[in-house]
Amino acid sequence: MICSTVDQLAILPRWKLSGADTNWESSHGDPVDLWEKQSLLEDGSIQLDQKFYTESRVQPIAIPRDRKRRKFSLCNPDEVEQLRALIGVPSWLSKETRCDLAGKTALLQQSFPKPLIRDLIAANQLAKEALDHKALGIRVMPIPLDRLRAGVVTIGDRCLMGKLKRIWHLS
Questions:
Q1: Spatial separation of the C-alpha atoms in residues 125 and 118, rounded to whole Å
Q2: Among 17, 36, 41, 126, which residue has the least CB neighbours within 10 Å?
Q3: Cβ atoms 24, 159 nearer than 8 A
Q4: Do 3 and 10 form a contact (C-beta atoms < 8 A)?
């Protein structure tokens, strides 16, 4: 079984997790479920999504009607700042669980350093898409034990290692 946190992946045997507390904290002390939800499904697969992060961070930019009409006008400094903030969210989402947002995000990033109003409109469309499909994520399918040849655990975080030691009852 593969379980992920914000910064690392660990492959965990399913039998070790039965009844165990799997609410880990990130390296920043934040509960991981604020950023990424991990659901163990009945077939043994794991569904990873970032619904809460998307709901709390994606905020479309308010564009006045008269500005929308001038699509090829340069953005003012305030609009550029808002666009940077808005593009940062789908950029992180596409890196973690929403690869469907990667292409549009990359195209919007190319609009800098001088974005146009049409880029603000496109960013709002991307934000709407992210919010409309906020429950999308990655489904990690289980590997049958008879087909598993090797297992790897990579620990890059002290709090995660401590949590794994408690789950597995290691000294």
A1: 11
A2: 41
A3: yes
A4: yes
